[in-house]
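Two proteins, back to back. First:
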Amino acid sequence: MRLAQEDILRYTLDASWTSPEWPSGYWPDPKLKVTDAVWSRTVEGFRRDLEAVCALAQDPGRDLTARIPHGEGRTYLRQVLLVADHNAYHTAHILAVRKLLGGWRG
């Protein structure tokens, strides 16, 4: 989720951004040892980029229906909705797995 969200945001705001290779660039390195510090940085990065997407959507000076100058016809609104849809889709999977594994409170 973090890597895709970052890619969508950076692509939207930076004409020089190069997206990662598909699909390997959208998954963490399988050799990476996930420590508490790595997890914390991941969560912080996700939250920071989500805040930036929200700020983009709430910017009164930006016409969300305008096409991104380098965006192949895509609009800012499309990009914001893409982030929302992608995050919702994967959050639902996370919640379903937690529930199935008995890791859900309430």
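And the second protein:
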Amino acid sequence: MPTPDGKETARPFLPAEDFETSKAFYRALGFELLLDSEVAIFAIWSTSFILQNFYREDHNFMMQLMVNDLDGWWAHITALDLPKRYSVPGPKPPAMQP
């Protein structure tokens, strides 16, 4: 087995109940759309994920985004007014987690 060289990445699959609205949501957050087909691949910095045109209510997914300027990102996210624009619950403010 080869030794990891630090270039490995994990690319999670995220479900989308409304595929088009979800794509717009991630673009508004600043993610770059790399592929727009039966799935959509988004990237930001050195990380990426695959958005699926698939949704089941009994499945849940969380994603963590590591940033250098938490206050700056929180200001960016709250200024987007995501609940109004995308009919989603409001984002929870950053908080220490166990």
